[in-house]
């Protein structure tokens, strides 16, 4: 039977999801952004705000969807999975109560403590700004300052890295967050493990390293992610034996505590000299990390979705064994002062063997133009990170100078720096 799948969301992540399922299902999509890649792959598309749970559920019913995949966290927070489930359309995405694991960082740490999930840093929760500032003054060591709610990956300030203690206090006093989490600053290298979760099963995909800083050499402000890479196996070159499995143990412990969780569970880890610690959980694929994981997944993603819906064990996953390097092209000036309206000069054909994924682009007069967000990404694949990186760069040669790319992502130099950093910390 051919499944009818509704995809919610319109970014690069959702273009990757669309490509992973389009050949094996009838695909419909809805989002506020009119992603040309998603629209080309879908049999139907409707402009719907992805946080309008009732409208999404109505569209799902109208197209007779058998199941739905939800991309963005804003939709999960708005209860889109709840509305779809209640309308009789299985949503591969957690209900709002379980998505709190991502949408409320205070809840997330309290959940970890209550359930003895390994890898939880020291933390404290404050709903009073002055009390938080006093804690910063009194704490022996550096802290990460995290607004409890969603901030698109841009709300966290790390003392001793991005800001001084005085700047962190000024930041808290200037913004009026209701609740903040102050936690021990973790030092090491970050990596992500994304898992498909349903019916108590956890099926993990290769570890990914994202690059959050806007500029080469990890300088500049934090972004939603400038690009990311995976290696040929499940682990990354700077990880030691056992680190990947330790991360999987964390995800499994979360699902043991939340047996009804369904959808993608994304663990963001800091690999410290004591092993992986949890930076955060997300309740969905990462963007860009979905663009690394899905192109090397040989198991049809639709089979995972159907098993999840049918209450069956999830299939064991098979991967192609290729390394991947994903690089985002963003408008010049992103994220602080983005230059919208630049023509996009790379398309699926000119990308050659690399994969092209659209994110936020404006389609008019037969052309595509940048907006104020990340515009498009290319993904190179190969039998090494270096080969994948070269393929991505070939595709980006025509990108022009009105978009900015972190050309250092996936290069031998940067990967070596990660390895050296971990060697130093472990000594
Ligand atoms: P989050 O929104 O929780 O993913 O945080 C964004 C970024 O802030 C992370 O990717 C880390 O680079 C950094 N970060 C968050 N928490 C910590 C921490 N406890 N120690 C060091 N860096 C952190
Ligand atoms: N790339 C980080 C995220 O999607 O949260």
Automatic annotation (TrEMBL):
It comes from the Archaea. Residues 109-310 form the ATP-grasp domain. Its cofactor is Mn(2+); Mg(2+). The keyword tRNA processing does not apply. One of its GO terms (biological process) is 'de novo' IMP biosynthetic process. PROSITE patterns: ATP_GRASP, GARS. It catalyses: 5-phospho-beta-D-ribosylamine + glycine + ATP = N(1)-(5-phospho-beta-D-ribosyl)glycinamide + ADP + phosphate + H(+). Its EC number is 6.3.4.13. The keyword Phosphoprotein does not apply. Pfam families: GARS_A (PF01071), GARS_C (PF02843), GARS_N (PF02844). InterPro entries: ATP-grasp, ATP_grasp_subdomain_1, PreATP-grasp_dom_sf, PRibGlycinamid_synth_ATP-grasp, PRibGlycinamide_synth, PRibGlycinamide_synth_C-dom, PRibGlycinamide_synth_C_sf, PRibGlycinamide_synth_CS. Keywords: ATP-binding, Ligase, Magnesium, Manganese, Nucleotide-binding, Purine biosynthesis. GO terms for molecular function: ATP binding; metal ion binding; phosphoribosylamine-glycine ligase activity. It is an enzyme of class 6 (ligase). Pathway: Purine metabolism; IMP biosynthesis via de novo pathway; N(1)-(5-phospho-D-ribosyl)glycinamide from 5-phospho-alpha-D-ribose 1-diphosphate: step 2/2. HAMAP family: GARS. PANTHER family: PHOSPHORIBOSYLAMINE--GLYCINE LIGASE (PTHR43472), PHOSPHORIBOSYLAMINE--GLYCINE LIGASE, CHLOROPLASTIC (PTHR43472:SF1). Belongs to the GARS family. This is Phosphoribosylamine--glycine ligase.
């Amino acid at each position: 039977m051919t499944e009818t799948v509704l995809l919610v969301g319109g970014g690069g992540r959702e273009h990757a999801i669309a490509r992973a399922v389009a050949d094996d299902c009838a695909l419909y999509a809805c989002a506020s952004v009119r992603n040309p890649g998603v629209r080309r792959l879908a049999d139907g598309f409707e402009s719907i705000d992805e946080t309008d749970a009732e409208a999404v559920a109505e569209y799902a019913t109208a197209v007779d969807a058998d199941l739905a995949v939800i991309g963005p966290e804003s939709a999960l927070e708005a209860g889109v999975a709840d509305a779809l489930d209640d309308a009789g359309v299985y949503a591969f995405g957690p209900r709002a109560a379980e998505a709190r694991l991502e949408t409320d960082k205070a809840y997330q740490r309290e959940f970890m403590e209550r359930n003895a999930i390994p890898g939880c840093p020291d933390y404290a929760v404050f709903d009073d700004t002055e009390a938080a500032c006093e804690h910063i003054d009194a704490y022996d060591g550096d802290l990460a300052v995290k607004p409890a709610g969603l901030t698109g990956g841009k709300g966290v300030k790390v003392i001793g890295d991005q800001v001084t203690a005085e700047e962190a206090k000024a930041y808290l006093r200037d913004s009026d967050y209701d609740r903040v989490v102050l936690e021990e600053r973790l030092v090491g290298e970050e990596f992500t493990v994304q898992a498909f979760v349903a019916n108590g099963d956890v099926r993990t995909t290769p570890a990914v390293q994202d690059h959050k800083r806007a500029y080469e050499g990890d300088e500049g402000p934090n972004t939603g992610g400038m690009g990311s890479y995976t290696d040929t196996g499940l682990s990354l070159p700077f990880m030691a034996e056992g680190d990947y499995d330790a991360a999987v143990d964390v995800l499994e412990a979360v699902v043991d505590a939340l047996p009804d969780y369904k959808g993608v569970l994304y663990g963001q880890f800091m690999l410290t000299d004591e092993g992986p610690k949890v930076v955060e959980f997300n309740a969905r694929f990462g963007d860009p990390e979905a663009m690394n994981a899905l192109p090397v997944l040989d198991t049809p993603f639709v089979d995972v979705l159907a098993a999840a819906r049918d209450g069956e064990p999830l299939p064991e996953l098979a991967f192609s064994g290729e390394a991947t390097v994903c690089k985002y092209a963003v408008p010049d000036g992103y994220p602080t002062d983005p230059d919208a309206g630049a023509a996009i000069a790379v398309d699926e054909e000119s990308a050659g063997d690399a994969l092209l994924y659209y994110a936020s682009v404006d389609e008019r007069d037969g052309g595509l133009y940048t907006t104020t967000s990340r515009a498009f990404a290319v993904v190179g694949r190969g039998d090494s990170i270096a080969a994948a990186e070269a393929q991505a760069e070939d595709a980006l040669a025509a990108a022009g100078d009105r978009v900015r790319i972190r050309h250092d992502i996936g290069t031998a130099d940067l990967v070596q720096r990660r390895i050296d950093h971990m060697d130093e910390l472990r000594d």
